[in-house]
């Protein structure tokens, strides 16, 4: 209910819009609106529709007069009665409330009461009825929507309950299936003693060790995750199972490589098997003298083993097996049985674990080691310093001390780096085919081993004051089978600038000139035996790096002209007269400096044309095989080079040992 003050009104009760004298008296009229009050109306802030402007007012001297006709006022009330078709926020009732406020403001003027006609009163009733009806409809719709939402929620709950029942039934079946599979795997994993006449037979001691629980401190191998490390001939298998003493993954210490695939793999296709094949033969390449090399392809559910027999050169792909069988095979065969593991480390334990293998020599093992602190102290000590524990070596059980070392405190080593190269003779593992045409080394005419020769040669050039383009020996063992040298750097790369390559060639030539001046022939001048170090004493430019000629294991002293030597150099270092067979004595020859200069000539050629030499450099063992294809190709190369325009004068310079003429050849080493 709302109370509205509208000004003066006559005494008779003729309704709120009855015309009368403008100033009779002041009255209060009460209007009944169903369910609403003016207070609530005035508090609404909902949007309203635009109404037609009210009739204009004309002020007369004595009394207000209607400025418009009845038709105009009727049309205005008719538009007021029309309900909007909007939603809950823009309904007919909302517009009614807004229009009602405007109407009250107009009725407060005395001039408007005389316009209260019967037709507008009827229209006004229609407005009120329409607003009431719209509100009731809105209330009914809201109640119905709430009931619908409640019913939908009840339906969702019912459907979800049905789905849960189905899911629980499915999971029961899955649990039963997994339980059955676990029982099957447990039965399959039961250790069964293989019969003695089967291929899976193991020694009783090994079998007992597998059946028993591992004791504290037992360690069969070192396992490394190598998925992101391309350490194996530019391959990166997922796991590397290495020798138990290995600290880092290293191709020479690999026992087995493992490649994993997703457990959803239904079968191993040719691509997956080819991937395992590549890993297997990269391991064979890194360990050429190992009898059996193994690689594993596994998805945990499916597992296959590839094994290469180096003696028969046959690679076998075994049938699929369970993971329990695979685990038993690796632990009981690959890690224990002779012939499956890599050769034992030839180095003593007190110099630590190798950081990286260097090269793949046939008769020696070479690796980079961090220089121990004890050795660093010995190198810095004076000449009269007492013998340290490092020099005494380790003591073997029941024997005298072994691996006794002699430290060489050289004046050429101005600063001791962090890393050294250690070379060790590998006995009873690598064939010693040192002489041409398959003849063994003659101990009467040649040294015992290449390692002992290199130790003696490095000690000799150190006393003679060798230049910095030759290596420095740090120590050697008392048995002359192991030595440590510096520097340790990477071989020459084809990514070097032409100016850097020219400087390296000049450095190697200077090293050869110095050696020849002291009656020493290197006999193994090739890119594998040249390393580059940063030249700290120079600015950026051509002198930014320095070339160092290493590996003096084949170097010989030619001051004794009566002593002949067997050739033991590389493919590109073999003198032409040896391949022609024009030797003074069968199987031996007298080296001359011209042999090194001819090999240096091939350094230039092979760096300018690297691609044709890629495969040729792998055939060093066949260059002395009479009438072999590699020997014929090499002989043809030299015969064509010595008469080819441009190269002929440099070949003649090598024969004549004309160093100044050879230096001019480096001017042809140029590219963008």
From TrEMBL:
Query: Keywords of this protein's UniProt record, alphabetized?
Result: Coiled coil
Q: Which region ranges are annotated with the description Disordered?
A: 1-24
Alphabetized GO MF terms: ATP binding; protein kinase activity
InterPro entries (UniProt xref): DUF6826, Kinase-like_dom_sf, Pkinase_fungal, Prot_kinase_dom
Q: Where is the Protein kinase domain?
A: 373-672
Residue stretches of biased makeup (Basic and acidic residues): 10-24
Coiled-coil annotation: which residues?
A: 154-188
Is 4Fe-4S one of the keywords UniProt gives this record?
Answer: no
Gene3D superfamilies in alphabetical order: Transferase(Phosphotransferase) domain 1 (1.10.510.10)
Q: Which domain of life is it from?
A: Eukaryota
Query: Pfam family of this protein, just one?
Result: DUF6826
What is the protein's name according to its record? Protein kinase domain-containing protein
Q: Which organism is it from?
A: Sphaerosporella brunnea
